[in-house]
Amino acid sequence: MSRADVREAGAGRRPNPLWALGLLRSELVTTVRRWRTLALLGVLAAVPVLVGVAVRIETRGGGSVGGGSGEGPAFITQITNNGLFLVFTALAATLPFFLPMTVGVVAGDAIAGEAGGGTLRYLLVAPAGRTRLLLTKYATVLAFCLLATLVVAVSALIVGALLFPLGELTTISGTRISFAEGLGRALLIALVVAASLVGVAALGLFVSTLTNSGIAAMATTVGLLITVQIVDQIPQLHAVQPYLFSHYWLSFADLMREPVYWDDLVKNLGLQGLYAAVFGSAAWARFTAKDISV
Amino acid sequence: MDEPSATQPDPGDAPASVIATRGLTKRYRGGQLAVDGLDLTVPAGSVFGFLGPNGSGKTTTIRMLMGLIEPTAGTARVLGHPMPRSARTVLPQVGALIEGPALYGFLSGRDNLLRYDAADPTADPRTRKARVAAALDRVGLAAAAGKKAKAYSLGMKQRLGLAAALLQPRRLLVLDEPTNGLDPQGMREIRTLVRELAADGTTVFLSSHLLDEIEQVCTHAAVMAQGRLVTQGAVADLAAGARGRLVVTTPDGAEAARVLKELGVGDVTADGERVTGEPPERDLAEVTAALVAAGVRVRGLTVERASLEDAFVALTGEGFDVAG
C-alpha cells in the first residue's frame, strides 16, 4: 500500500485547502441558529432598553439621574443630553457580568456540549481534526464575543436615538467632539469591549475540554467569572488584581478622553492576549491528548 | 502489487488486510484493562462480524481504530496506515457508526448531515447537497429530511447515523450495532444495504450482539470476551468448529437409538420422538436405510447445523448477553 494508492482510492476527491473553512461556516451558522444563543442575545439587547426607559422615566420632570452624584454605571448622567451615551452606559453595565456570562455559556459548551451529545466523536471521525476543530470553536466563540457586544451597542444606539436627543458630545476631558466622531468612538469602544472578552473566552474553552458535560463547563466558567469579579473587589488582594482578566475591563472609558489615555487600554489588551495564549495552549494540549470515550 | 488503476479504485490495489492490529491494548486510568493484546485481522472485501458480550471491549477497540482513544500499547493499522497518526489520510475513506447515532436535535436531519459533511476537509462543498440527498435516500429518510432530529424515532436516528457514514464512497464501513432500535423490516433493509455495499467492494466491519444477524450477512467474524480475542476467521469455519447434531424424528425412539448405536453413532440420546447423536462419518442415506430396515418408522432425519451461537457458547463458556 503506497501513498499513491490512497490518493487513487479517493478518486475524484482533490481536497481544496479552502474546504477546511466549511467547518467554520457550519459552526457559525449552527451557533447562531441555536435557540439558546438567540435567547442570550435577546437578554443583551434588552439591557439598553431597560436602562434607557428607566433613565427616561426618572428624568421626565427635568431632574437628573441619581441626583447627578455619579451613582450608577459610567456616563449614565449624560444620557439625557445625548442618546449616544446610552451606548457607553449599556456597555459599561453589561461588561462586568452579562456579556462575559453569555460568552462563558457559549465557550463552556463549545467542546463539552459536543462531547456530552456524542456529536464530538462523529466530528472527529469525519475527520474534523482536533486542532482544526478547536481553532474553529475558538474562532466561533470570538465571533460571538463581537456579535454580543454589537447587539448591546446597536440596541443602545437605537433606544438612545428614539428616547433622547442626538448631537455633539462632551468627552470626559471636557472637549466637544462631533456626533460623527462620537459614533466612531462608540464603534471603537465596542471593539475594545469585544476584545476584553477574549480572555474569558479562552478560559471557557479550556474548561470545556476538561469535562463531557456542557452544563458543568458553563457553570464552572461563569463561577470563575463571579469569583474573579469578587476577588477584584477585595482591597486586601490587590497584589493579584492586575492579573485578573477583568481588572482593566472598564478602561474602555479612556477612549472617551481627549487625548485618549492608552495605558490601561494597552494593559487590558495585553492581559487578554496572555489569557488567550495560556488557556488556548492548555486547551490544545488537553484536547489533542484526550481520550474521547463518550 | 499491480499498477494502480488510473480511473477508479481497484480492489486489487487494496491491502490484504483493511484492519490489522498487533498487541493492541487499552488500560483505562484506574487500571481497568478494557482490551488486552488484540491481534485482529480484517481481510479486504469481507463483511466482518465483531462479536462479544457487553463490556468485552468491542467499542473500546473500535474507538482505538478510529483514533478517538490512544492505545496503551500495541499498534493498529487501518487501510494500511497507522492509527491514530494517519487519521487525516485514513478517516475520509472510512464511514463509521459508533455506539449509536449522535445528532443535533435542533437541526433537521438534512442539516445534521450537511454539518458532518462540512467537518470533512476532503468533502467537496459543490456536491454536498447532492451527496446528502443521496445518503438520505439510501437509508429511506428522504421524506423526513426536513424534520428536526429531536422528533426522530430511535430507528430514524439510527438511519440518519448510517446516512452520515455513507456521505462519501468509502473503502471501509465500521458499523457498531447498526440495527439497534430498528423494527424487523428496518433490520432487513439494513442487512440488504450492507450486502449491497459489500458487493460494491466496501469492507464492512460490523459489531453486533445479534448472532443470527452476523450469520446472515458476515463472511468473517471475531469473538471477544473480557478484552481478549477468543477466535477469528471465516464464519463457516467458526461454525464448523462446533459440530452439528444428527436428529432423527420417529415414534419408535428406543428402537432408533439402538440402531444408531449399532451403526457407531456416538453420544446417542433419546428424548421422546427425538433421537440425537453425533453426526456419523458414513452417508446419511445408509443410516436411513438401516433404520427403515430395522422397522423404525422415520418421520425425519437431518443433521442440524451448528449455529454461531453454539460456537460462541463453546468458546466463551457463557451465554451471549452476560456482561464480561
From TrEMBL, chain A:
Write down the species: Streptomyces tricolor
The record lists the membrane-crossing segments as 38-58, 79-99, 141-166, 186-207
Q: What is this protein called?
A: ABC transporter permease
Identify the keywords attached in UniProt to this record, alphabetized: Membrane, Transmembrane, Transmembrane helix
Q: Which Pfam families match?
A: ABC2_membrane_4
Automatic annotation (TrEMBL), chain B:
Q: Does the keyword tRNA-binding apply?
A: no
One GO molecular function term? ATP binding
Which superkingdom, per the lineage?
Bacteria
Say yes or no: keyword rRNA processing present. no
**Per its UniProt record, what SUPFAM superfamilies does this chain match?**
P-loop containing nucleoside triphosphate hydrolases
Q: Which keywords describe this protein according to UniProt?
A: ATP-binding, Nucleotide-binding, Transport
Q: Where is the ABC transporter domain?
A: 19-251
Name the Gene3D superfamilies for this protein: P-loop containing nucleotide triphosphate hydrolases
Protein family according to the UniProt entry: Belongs to the ABC transporter superfamily.
Q: What name has this protein been given in UniProt? A: ABC transporter ATP-binding protein
Instruction: Tell me what organism the protein belongs to.
Output: Streptomyces tricolor
